[in-house]
Specification:
Blueprint: H1 2-29, E1 45-46, E2 53-54, E3 60-62, E4 65-67, H2 70-73
Antiparallel strand pairs: 1-2, 3-4
């Protein structure tokens, strides 16, 4: 009688270990989700007078230098 109980306990333990091993393999086989790719930040230029950064299309250009406003460009 005691031998049967020990055999049942051992079998339940083996089944439990196999179940845990199967779950561990399933978790490790799934690749982690990749974050969505973000577009690169737009290129910015710094005002030659005050250092404020702004898009090149919004800048006032004078002598090859970017300015944030006509006042800073001296126009």
């Amino acid at each position: 009688m005691l031998g049967r109980i020990v055999t049942i306990v051992v079998l339940v333990g083996v089944v439990f270990l196999l179940f845990r091993l199967a779950l561990r393999k399933k978790r490790s086989s799934t690749p982690p989700p990749t974050p969505p790719e973000m577009p690169p930040p737009p290129a910015l230029v710094a005002c030659a007078q005050c250092g404020v950064h702004l898009p090149p299309d919004d800048a006032t250009w004078r002598d090859g230098k970017a300015f944030c406003s006509k006042d800073h460009a001296g126009l």
